[in-house]
Amino acid sequence: MDTLSPGALLIADPFLKDPNFARTVILLCEHQDKGSFGFVINKLFDQHLDELIPEVLVTGIPVYTGGPVQMDTIHFIHQQPDIINGGMMIAPGIYWGGHFDNVVESLNQGKINLDKIKFFIGYSGWSSGQLEEEMREKSWITSMATPDLVFDKGEQHIWQQALKNMGSNFAIMANYPIDPSLN
After folding, report:
1. Which stretches within the chain are classed as H helix?
2. What does the pLDDT look like over 22-56, one tens digit per residue?
3. Most exposed residue of 60, 63, 65, 155, measured as fewest CB within 10 angstroms of its CB?
4. pTM for the structure as a whole
5. CA–CA separation, 61 vs 119, rounded Å?
């Protein structure tokens, strides 16, 4: 798949050296002429949601580092449009955003299945033409997102699993060493 559109996964090439994106998988939420926007789905942040948002009474909800842009903002994706109002479907079974007050209230009331929501601090963003240039440089491999992969809580395996899901030609990449010169 070479299409850049909402719901695409950007899987970092095994040799991508940028420390913000090495061995990451990004869920693309928006792609337009003016730029692109998404979240790294497999990089755990070092604080939980209740530590960042005091109104959240439920402890231990993981937060992921969505990317290096605006690290003072919280975002979320989910699979519960019947509970969370205002979200936008970006792929079958995957919704981006919604009314945050509604999310906090529903979390505190135990209405949200924590396996069907992911929170992010910051995001990944590209200006006009920047992501297309990175695609020409072969920095990213693309595939379509699936809820099983996007909401997987085993973040340390998401990058490898995304490659394996693409078939045997890509599965071999999942075992490439981070630095081949050390072999």
Report:
1. 49-52, 100-108, 130-136, 147-150, 155-164, 168-171
2. 999 999 999 999 999 999 999 999 999 999 999 99
3. 60
4. 0.93
5. 8
